[in-house]
Amino acid sequence: MSDLYSQAGVDVEAGDRAVELMKAAVARTQGAQVLGGVGGFAGLWDASDLLTYRKPLLATSTDGVGTKVALAQRLDKHDTIGIDLVGMVVDDIVVTGATPLFMTDYIACGRVVPERIAAIVAGIARGCEETGTALVGGETAEHPGLLDPDEYDVAGAATGVVEADRVLGPDRVRDGDVLLALASSGLHANGYSLVRHVLATTRWDLGEHHADLGRTLGEELLEPTRLYTRPCLDLTDNVTVHAYTHVTGGGLASNLARVLPPGLVADVARESWVVPPVFQLLARGAGSDMAALEGTLNLGVGMVAVLPASEVQAATARLALAGVAAWELGTVRVETPDDVTHHALVSGTKGVRGGAVLMHGEYRTS
């Protein structure tokens, strides 16, 4: 039967070898709560600790890394794309104030190359270790004829838990709150269709060293997504935080609007930070100004904490200890009649009928 299946383009033995190669990396993410091992039909996680919660709410998220995988395939570097996946999935959970518990992954490929699959999973495992998330299972599916032999896509889902009375979000945000920006590590895993369009039109060499980047363009574009899980959970435990927003697809304004209640507006000062060189490079390649990219790329802001002004100093200090640069991005205020007619007002994104965001000023490039 396996010979007949291999004639159809599916290599079962290669899949088994991939599982053997990834076992050690996966095991490092698993603590006493994980039962069984790699290869079961389902992952088992002991939920006994949830009995200590007064009213536990489970938070869940699923995502992929978009077309950033095309760059990984083009450069034949696959050991960091899994970190991006963890960032995209787990830090969406953290936005609610939830602690991540476990994650599963899914890899679809045109052909199973055991070493490549193991490298992808090793990256996922590294991200899970860094965020304290158990990798309890996954699936690698070989799709010959649907995907080219060297093509693949990755996706994942994670679950976390938070006390019902500690859920963060719009209902906690108040007039006068401060927006505290947390620096991104680069492009993260959004906007790569635009990036690839710029690469196609400029014909830039991914192997060329750029002095302003301090490395090659390819290395810069594959820089993994910064993982905010532990720093953000530390803030939640030690200072008053009203909300977080994870700056992913759609850019800063649209994601920030999702965590504001109706009637409040966030004023964001573009001049409050210097846009990192990679975004400046892409703007030049696209022949556009920075503001034209703000609805697609994070431009240097990967996460925003919304918190009382009295907590900003303590929060900034704690983030510095965690190695995350942070700065005041703007403030939250009550909406005025003039705001409603402002052409730059961003609101009502991703189906959320919440608050609004106004971007002010000019971006700094030095």
From TrEMBL:
Reactions catalysed, as given in the entry: 2-formamido-N(1)-(5-O-phospho-beta-D-ribosyl)acetamidine + ATP = 5-amino-1-(5-phospho-beta-D-ribosyl)imidazole + ADP + phosphate + H(+)
Pathway stated in the Swiss-Prot or TrEMBL entry: Purine metabolism; IMP biosynthesis via de novo pathway; 5-amino-1-(5-phospho-D-ribosyl)imidazole from N(2)-formyl-N(1)-(5-phospho-D-ribosyl)glycinamide: step 2/2
Secretion signal, residue range per the UniProt entry: none
Listed EC numbers: 6.3.3.1
One annotated GO molecular function: phosphoribosylamine-glycine ligase activity
Entry keyword Transmembrane: no
Residue span, PurM-like C-terminal domain: 174-335
InterPro entries named among the record's database cross-references: PurM-like_C_dom, PurM-like_C_sf, PurM-like_N, PurM-like_N_sf, PurM_cligase
Pfam families (alphabetical): AIRS, AIRS_C
NCBIfam families reported for this sequence: purM
PANTHER family named among the record's database cross-references: TRIFUNCTIONAL PURINE BIOSYNTHETIC PROTEIN ADENOSINE-3, TRIFUNCTIONAL PURINE BIOSYNTHETIC PROTEIN ADENOSINE-3-RELATED
Protein name: Phosphoribosylformylglycinamidine cyclo-ligase
Organism: Serinibacter arcticus
